[in-house]
């Protein structure tokens, strides 16, 4: 990828062509999420993290990095880019809606409503509210 705000300078011969999916339904993946305090937006950094964390690392995020060490939680992510220089905001809303829909379904299916209502809020756990 050549430096710049978009892909106009990229060589289209380097594009990876993929067959269309059989369905437009979202896909759900389970695995290791690398969490840190910086945005990953170049392929070299992404590949280095995967090489050091392991092939089971399926995505990167930064929002839960400070939370997970102090608060037991399950992180559900909507994926909107490939953590490379082509990163943009085009798919963020779709990814957020997909993750929210999955989280809701997971809670409705596996966690009794009374348990959800009795669970302490994050602010209470950290004694902030």
UniProtKB/TrEMBL annotation:
Residues 1-26 are annotated as: Disordered. One of its GO terms (molecular function) is catalytic activity. Residues 24-101 form the Nucleoside phosphorylase domain. Pfam families: PNP_UDP_1. This is Nucleoside phosphorylase domain-containing protein. It comes from the Eukaryota. Residues 8-26 have a biased composition (Basic and acidic residues). It comes from Podospora fimiseda. GO terms for biological process: nucleoside metabolic process.
């Amino acid at each position: 990828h050549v430096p710049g705000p978009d892909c106009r300078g990229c060589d289209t011969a380097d594009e990876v062509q993929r067959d269309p999916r059989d369905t437009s339904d979202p896909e759900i993946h389970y695995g290791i999420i690398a969490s840190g305090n910086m945005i990953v937006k170049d392929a070299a950094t992404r590949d280095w993290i995967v090489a050091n964390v392991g092939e089971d690392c399926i995505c990167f995020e930064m929002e839960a990095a400070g939370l997970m060490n102090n608060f037991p939680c399950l992180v559900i992510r909507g994926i909107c880019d490939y953590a490379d220089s082509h990163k943009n905001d085009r798919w963020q809303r779709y990814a957020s809606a997909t993750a929210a829909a999955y989280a809701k379904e997971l809670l409705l299916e596996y966690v009794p409503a009374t348990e959800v209502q009795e669970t302490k809020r994050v602010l209470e756990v950290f004694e902030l509210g």
